Amino acid sequence: MILADVLTAVLLPAGAVFSVLGALGMARFPDLLTRLHAATKPQTIGLLLVLVGAAAQMESVADVTPLVLVGIFQLMTSPVIAQTVGATAYRAGEVHPAFLVIDESDERG
Amino acid sequence: MNAVYALTLALLSAAGLLTMARLVRGPTALDRILALDVLSVLLVSGVAVHAATQGTAANAASLVVIALLGFVGTVTAARLAGERGRRE
């Protein structure tokens, strides 16, 4: 039980710190694509750490299952969200060309 | 352990406030949709912390439902925003 408590005490605040850093990026980054980075990667890591930290406190294996499910689900969905939002923004012309190093979606080549 | 939970929830609340700042400021609809998606992820984290305080996953249903609705809602809203952008 002690080991589980240490795991939780480390992982829960660590995950929350990742979430705060991601949210800080959401608030501070200059354009949509950089905010997309802050919205997906740190948030996913933060959620996974919190889920593992919470799983350490569960009393039975059956209680861990939904946490694992949510973790896998987050790993599957956050790239889809990033792709959808990014592609929509690009098509709508909301991506500033000056912020792009390489523009492989440009049809003019 | 209570201090750990309080610290975690406080940090998650701070993250929620920062995200809400982006939600208010925009400037585009896609920025706001993205901010709402981050809020749903933070909400899932908060519910997971609550599950940790209880020691059981009694609120597992809300955990999965919030995660699902966050994903479906974000993708739908993003596509809808794209459609509207093309028509104008």
Alpha carbon gap, first and last residue of chain B? 54 Å
What portion of residues of chain B belong to β-strands? under 5%
- The overall pLDDT average of chain A reads 86
Mean pLDDT of chain B: 87
**Largest interchain contact:** A-B, 54 and 51 residues
Number of helices of chain A: 3
Share of helix of chain B, binned? over 70%
How do the helices and strands follow one another from N- to C-terminus of chain A?
HHH
| Broad structural category of chain A | mainly alpha
Strand content of chain A: under 5%
Gap between N and C termini of chain A: 60 Å
Question: How many beta-strand segments of chain A?
Answer: 0
Cα shape of chain B: flat
How would a crystallographer describe the biggest sheet of chain B? none
Unreliable sequence segments of chain A: none
Q: Count the E strands of chain B.
A: 0
Largest sheet of chain A: none
Shape of chain A: elongated
How big is the Rg of chain A?
A: 18 Å
SSE topology string of chain B? HHH
Helix fraction bin of chain A: over 70%
Keywords (chain B): Cell membrane, Membrane, Transmembrane, Transmembrane helix, Transport
Pfam families (chain B): MrpF_PhaF (PF04066)
Family (chain B): Belongs to the CPA3 antiporters (TC 2.A.63) subunit F family.
Subcellular location (chain B): Cell membrane
Short description:
The complex is a heterodimer of chains A (109) and B (88). By secondary structure, chain A is mainly alpha-helical.
Describe what this molecule looks like in 3D.
- The complex is a heterodimer of chains A (109) and B (88).
- Chain A is 75% helix and 0% strand.
- With 109 residues, chain A is an all-alpha fold.
- Chain A is elongated.
- Chain A starts with a helix and ends in an 18-residue tail after the last helix.
- Chain B has 88 residues and is mainly alpha-helical.
- Chain B has one domain (1-85).
- Chain B starts with a helix and ends with a helix.
- The model of chain B has no long low-confidence stretch (mean pLDDT 87).
- Chains A and B meet through helix 1, helix 2 and helix 3 of A and helix 1, helix 2 and helix 3 of B.
